[in-house]
Amino acid sequence: MSSETGSSKDVSEEHLPHKQDPGAVTVADDPFADPGLPAHEPRKQDIDERAAKRSERVVTLLFALSSVATVGFIVSYLLIPIDKIVYIWPFGHVSGLNFALGWTLGLALFCIGAGAVHWARTLMSDEEVPDERHPIAASPEVKAAVLEDWRAGTQESGIGFGRRKMMRNSLLGAMALVPLSGVVLLRDLGPAPGDKLFHTKWEAGKRIVNENTGLPLRPEDITVGSLTQAMPEGMDLHDHDFHSEIAKAAVMLVRLEPADIKDEQSADWGHEGILCFSKICTHIGCPATLYERQTHHALCPCHQSTFDLSDGARVLFGPAGHPLPQLRITTNEDGELVAMGDFAEPPGPSFWERG
């Protein structure tokens, strides 16, 4: 009987809740208890040498492809003509040199990055190492002192976030309105340009004058292979709007052999091989007046945008977004070069309203 009683007692104790140490902290008491690190799981490459060899070959292949792409970049730069235009779907007609340089350099950089990442993920050590950190939470005493200082400060200031609501609300309103000052200052950026960017000082019959001498230009003044900088007649350096207008109206004239002009419309808009283009680069507005007479290329010194003046000032290289606008010219009864109207499109850098 006593044996049965003892057995019954043991069974009942097993089903009773265990007594806990009053000072012990459980997960239920502390929801942010440290769960510890999970057991380390080896990768396939750690236990299978053949898998490790495969990863090694993949990384080697990526690095080798990067080397080949770099060599391709150098070869492309040396062999592809700067004015070579190719058709590549779906991009359309693009510069063959720019396309080759971009793809080879991009592939070289990508393969280096991909190889390094694959190396790190499959072959480098990935053993987790814990590092103990000191607690960053403030002690209860510090928290209590900060709250007490806050209450005392609000009471002494007379605001009291539970009292004097009119003062509190006026403060919040003032702080909300202050940023509007910055918005108003945006007006000083200047008035909207309207259609000013679409019009310049050029008009039908306006004589083309040398930018340095101010004298009208004649066809005989423009020799083959030369570049002459010019502007519309009647512009004076002392005019209040001179700088804003010359920034749109400045042009350059070149004379080519008629057989060297590739674009038919460009030839029709010129006079006896003399072509007139805006000299304002269509990237950010620098003067694109570095001229190479053998290739008929005009170069912008700021960011190396290159234009083919023999082919409608088409962009060959650089960040410029569109060709230099051409000014249609002829001669008047006195044999002087004159404009036949304004530019067909706005000169200078692109802007969002541009068609």
Automatic annotation (TrEMBL):
Residues 10-21 have a biased composition (Basic and acidic residues). The keyword Hydrolase does not apply. It is a multi-pass membrane protein. The keyword Mitochondrion does not apply. It is found in: Cell membrane. GO terms for cellular component: plasma membrane. GO terms for molecular function: 2 iron, 2 sulfur cluster binding; metal ion binding; monooxygenase activity; oxidoreductase activity, acting on paired donors, with incorporation or reduction of molecular oxygen. SUPFAM superfamilies: ISP domain. The chain crosses the membrane at residues 58-80, 100-120, 171-190. Keywords: 2Fe-2S, Cell membrane, Disulfide bond, Electron transport, Iron, Iron-sulfur, Membrane, Metal-binding, Oxidoreductase, Respiratory chain, Transmembrane, Transmembrane helix, Transport. Residues 1-46 are annotated as: Disordered. Residues 248-338 form the Rieske domain. Signal peptide: none annotated. Belongs to the Rieske iron-sulfur protein family. The cytochrome bc1 complex is composed of a cytochrome b (QcrB), the Rieske iron-sulfur protein (QcrA) and a diheme cytochrome c (QcrC) subunit. Iron-sulfur subunit of the cytochrome bc1 complex, an essential component of the respiratory electron transport chain required for ATP synthesis. The bc1 complex catalyzes the oxidation of menaquinol and the reduction of cytochrome c in the respiratory chain. The bc1 complex operates through a Q-cycle mechanism that couples electron transfer to generation of the proton gradient that drives ATP synthesis. This is Cytochrome bc1 complex Rieske iron-sulfur subunit. It comes from Streptomyces lonarensis.
